[in-house]
Amino acid sequence: xxxxxxxxxxVGAAATSILKRRSFFDTCVVADYDLAKAERAVARLxxxxxxxxxxxxxxxxxxxxxxxxxxATHVLNAVDPRFVMPIxxxxxxxxxxxxxxxxxxxxxxxxxxxxxxGVKLGDEQFAQGAKWEQAGRLALxxxxxxxxxxxxxxxxxxxxxxxEIDLVGIRDGANLVVDGYDFAPSFSIWTVLxxxxxxxxxxxxxxxxxxxxxxxxxxxxxxxxxxxxxECVNVEHEEVLLVPRWVDAKRVDFKYGxxxxxxxxxxxxxxxxxxxxxxxxxxxxxxxxxxxxAAGAPDxxxxxxxxxxxxxxxxxxxxKDKDGNDRAVYLYHVVDNAETxxxxxxxxxxxQTAINPVVALELLAxxxxxxxxxxxxxxxxxxxxxxxxxxxxDSPWGQSERDPKTHAPLN
Length: 411
Known about the structure:
Layout: E1 2-6, H1 10-19, E2 27-32, H2 35-43, E3 50-54, H3 60-70, E4 74-77, H4 84-94, E5 97-100, H5 123-126, H6 129-134, E6 138-140, H7 149-161, E7 162-174, E8 177-178, H8 189-197, E9 201-204, E10 208-211, E11 219-223, E12 228-234, H9 239-246, E13 251-256, H10 260-271, E14 280-282, E15 285-287, H11 289-296, E16 307-308, E17 310-321, E18 326-336, H12 337-343, H13 348-365, E19 373-375, H14 382-390, E20 398-402
Parallel strand pairs: 1-2, 1-4, 2-3, 4-5, 5-6, 6-19, 7-13
Antiparallel strand pairs: 7-17, 8-16, 9-10, 9-13, 11-12, 12-13, 14-15, 17-18, 18-20
Helix pairs in contact: 1-13, 3-4, 7-9, 7-14, 13-14
């Protein structure tokens, strides 16, 4: 297996530090528009299997060129979702397989943005499913932590724990603190603004996909391993578009623990127009306000030394167990920033995202996972992934029994 990682930011660099400990691949090229950034990511590894390259992720032809030059068999997209389609198309043109951790962007319904979905996350990619399948190529989409591991948890619950599912609810929370910063998102601020300010999508089996206003339906969810109760709100996320394609559930939603202060900052950015991606003229220069915000925000990859606490990604599943009894289970993965910094030198959020495509690549390399077309993580057997994650990768996951009505922990 010859891997090309497009993007040498926090997640891309974290993926290389995880890959360094594995032997299933032959070479890995780390590419970025900023060649120096890619070179720094490679230099810290001191491993001859890794090399750096320059690429324009906004240009499908340039992506195709680099895939061909490197003879990559698998391309891992580790940049923000505005570049999904050029990388996706360039990878296909070059004849390689593709993985990403965020899918093609949505577009608001032109008349009813807060009740009806327009172009949904991933629609542009799924529209090309037949072409990828006919070519015998695989695009494994949404294989980060959320989406990714959360989707695998949903498939595992459907296969192993439940006979009927009423709710698949992704619940993400943390108690992370970044010393020295009043506002320091632990992930790409461009992506945070995109998913938090867009209308959240919800799936109901008898209704299909629909939207609500941002930050709707708040609920307090009790997270494990000392994180405790966190208020979570609806956020636009890929799981809601992926899970229903492979898992039979009456409702699928995604709720994120943002906190009032964080939400207020996002609202101010939106009200002042600073969350917009539409270029404006500033003293004769066309600039996107969101790009200005992103440029001014701290680089998530650099926050690790100032960060303390844990982050939790997980999937709440409610329904009937195999014997027909009411049951609720929260399947989760907790990562402590102190551990990832000590072991890998990467902060918890980017590391937790990066480990999952690496595990998936290993399963593809050894033939445990295989397929063609546009497939989400739910399309594959979940147990081999979870066993490898907790075993050889030494990153255990947990299972918490919950009250079927209140979702409060029972153990």
